[in-house]
Every structure is written in C-alpha cells, then in structure tokens.
Amino acid sequence: MNNVLESCETKMKKSVESLQREFATLRTGRASASLLDRIRVDYYGTETPLNQVSTISTPEARTIVIQPWDKSLLGVIEKAILKSDLDLPPNNDGKLIRLNFPPLNEERRKALVKTAKGIAEQSRVAIRNIRREAIDDLKKLEKSSEISEDEQRDGEVRVQKLTDSYVEQINALSDEKEKEIMEI
Fold first, then answer.
1. CA-atom Rg of the chain in angstroms
2. Is pLDDT above 70 for 93?
3. Of 29, 129, 150, 152, which alpha carbon lies 20 to 30 A from 181's?
4. Residues 121-173 pLDDT 10s
C-alpha cells in the first residue's frame, strides 16, 4: 500500500511542477527570461534551447536582452523568436537582440487569465486521474488479498487527502498567476 501512496504523491508533485513550468512561460506584463524556455534554435544542425547558446538577461522590467555566444546565431535566434508564440518583434543590432514588452491591454490580460485557468484545470484533471489510478491500485491489492478491506479504505482516505492538498496548491498557484497577469 505504501508503494501506491508514494507513487501517487510523486506523480502529483510532478503535475504541480509541470504547472509551475507552464506558468513561467506565460507572458505577464513583466519581462522574464523563462518566457524563452521553449524557444529552440538550430545550432549546427541540432535543435538547442536558446539559453544554451546565449546569455539572457532582463536589464529592465519590460526588456529582455539575448546575447549569443556565437554572433553568427543572431539571425537564427531572430527567426526562432518570430516563429514562436511570443508575438514580440526582436530588435537585432548586430551584437545582441532586444525584446521590448509593451504593456498588456485589458483584453489581452483577460485572455491570458483564461489561458492560465485552462492550464490550471488541466493540472487538476491530471491530479484527479492520478487519484483514480491509485484507488484502482488499492482495490486490486485488496482483491488479491495483499491488504485488508480496512487498509484499502484507509489508503483511499489518504489518497483523497493528498489529492485535496495538491488541488489546493494548484488553486493557489493559479490565483497568484492571475493576480500577476492583472496587475498594471
């Protein structure tokens, strides 16, 4: 039974960590280097994450500066940014690339909040699916007489407590992200 509970908690932790990574790539009013985490560039025939071929910094609240270690990558990086869903025009001065973040309008903020809520709901669904799998595993153990009926019920209660705890974490992260997006 402990293996089932440990496996359940590990999977739930990974779901919350995945949500945090997703939220980090969601654009808010502020510049953040994590927004570029999904961007990959063709580095000598290999798709390489942008942060592995350049230095990325945020010198101001609404600016990201990308300085490639190899100047020949400027064009490739520029194309990758244009192809991405960032919807920001890169400014290439021959040495580095600047991304300037215009302030978000109200309509765009509401759309981002809606997207964040959708991502959070996907995470809650994943948590509930993990709960269902764990309860099914406990029922199988009880059916095969590896654990008693009381242990199975106790396990289900513990799985539900874990589920509630992780759903609360997701709700808190979602509320925090919504507040971050809506602040002017």
1. 22
2. yes
3. 129
4. 999 999 999 999 999 999 999 999 999 999 999 999 999 999 999 999 999 99
Integer distance in angstroms from the first to the last C-alpha of the chain? 49
Q: Which helix (H) or strand (E) holds 168?
A: helix 149-182
Give the integer Cα–Cα distance in Å for 136 and 156. Answer: 9
Angstrom distance (rounded) from CA 165 to CA 146: 27
**CB 65, CB 98: distance < 8 Å:** yes
**Encoding tokens for residue 48?**
């390489």
Residue located via tokens 């199975």? 152
Q: In this structure, are residues 13 and 5 in contact, taking their beta carbons and an 8 Å threshold?
A: no
- Residue 68 or residue 85, greater confidence: 68
Nearest to 139 by CA among 120, 125, 153, 118: 153
| Residue 26 clears pLDDT 90, i.e. is over it | no
Q: What is the rounded CA–CA span in Å between residue 149 and residue 156?
A: 11
CB count in 10 Å sphere of residue 87? 9
Exposed/middle/buried for residue 78 (C-beta within 10 Å: 0-12, 13-18, 19+): middle
The torsion angles phi and psi of 40, rounded to 5 degrees, stand at: -120, 145
| Whether pTM exceeds 0.70 | yes
Summarised one tens digit per residue, pLDDT across range 34-78 is 888 888 998 888 899 998 999 999 998 889 999 999 888 999 999
